[in-house]
Amino acid sequence: MESEERLRYAKRALDGVALGDCFGQSFFMADEIARQRIKKREISNNPWYFTDDTVMAIGIYCILEKYGKIDQDALARAFAENYALDWHRGYGGTAHSILRSIGEGQDWRDVASGAFDGMGSMGNGAAMRVAPVGAYFADDLDKVLYHARASAEVTHAHMEGIVGAMAAAVASALLLNKKQGSYLGEGAVFLRDVADKLPDSDTKYKILSAASVPKESSIDFVVSVLGNGIRLTAQDTVPLCLWCAAYFYTSLEEALWMAVSALGDRDTICAIVGGMVSLYADELPQQWVSYMERPETSVFMSDRR
After folding, report:
1. Which residue has the higher pLDDT, 13 or 303?
2. pLDDT tens, 217-272?
3. pTM for the full model?
């Protein structure tokens, strides 16, 4: 692919992340009320705002646009600068600490590796922002894995957090390849194909478990097996997202309704699913797009890095 085509797909993935993020965020309310609205397919006609999920995906997109790769030092600066522009975007406690420290001049390597008493973060934050990497390098899965890992390491030093990003990036690439006719897998085959590319980890083996969960399963059963992000970890979030993409990739709306019905960390689950499935969809649902905050008009993209 030429660089212009790569960027077009990366922007589609970014828009998918933003749409999923905005959609999922609009269902943060008491679980019973959310369930009733989801059952009725009732969306809010108030403006939908994105969270840190999209802000960090914007950082990745801008770095790909400028460098044609993940430059980790530049990405760390982009994350910290966008955080400083508006830190009221739903960042988790560890993210606040990491991004403030980077913004104060500390080396991202030291900051990321020092999180959680030196274990590093296994959170789902690296997976939520990575779809543009999978889109940009979709014609070379080795590059997808390499740059997904690089994008994760800036904030996530724990292998689970890194593998979560690698998984979401590979799934994004495969769905784009499927749209272009160069990949045929779906359902359980798709899930196993993603897992085959990953290092040994709990996240990998939970994705393999997802391959044994039938499409017809109730969402309560799916959550009982795969999680719903309530623990905020990669292994409790990414397998569910890949299951949604594996079985509902033909309709972005259906994929997102399934994703949000899991409740849990609903903005992040929907951001991951939206980023992946947008690469197969012909277009984003225009009614939904009309409600969402757009990345390209936000302060976070006003000065391309």
Report:
1. 13
2. 999 999 999 999 999 999 999 999 999 999 999 999 999 999 999 999 999 999 99
3. 0.97
Cβ-contact 245, 251 below 8 angstroms: no
* CB contact burial 90-106 (16+ within 10 A = b; e otherwise): bbeebbeebbbbbbeee
Distance CA 172, CA 283 (A): 16
Tokens of 284: 């984003």
What's the rounded Cα separation, in Å, for the pair 125 and 148? 12
- Give one DSSP letter per residue of the chain, joined into a string: --HHHHHHHHHHHHHHHHHHHHHHHTT-S-HHHHHHHHHTT----SPB---HHHHHHHHHHHHHHHHSS--HHHHHHHHHHHHHH---S---HHHHHHHHHHHTT--HHHHHHHHHHHT---BTHHHHT-HHHHHHTTT-HHHHHHHHHHHHHTT--SHHHHHHHHHHHHHHHHHHHHHTTS----HHHHHHHHHHTSPSSHHHHHHHHHTTS-TTS-HHHHHHHH--STT-BSTTTHHHHHHHHHHHTT-HHHHHHHHHTT-SSHHHHHHHHHHHHTTTSSS--HHHHHHBPPGGGSGGGSS--
Confidence of residue 3 (pLDDT cuts 50, 70, 90): confident
Contacts 24+ apart (CB under 8 A), 226-229: 227/264, 228/262, 228/263, 228/264, 228/265, 228/269, 229/124, 229/262, 229/264, 229/265, 229/266, 229/268, 229/269
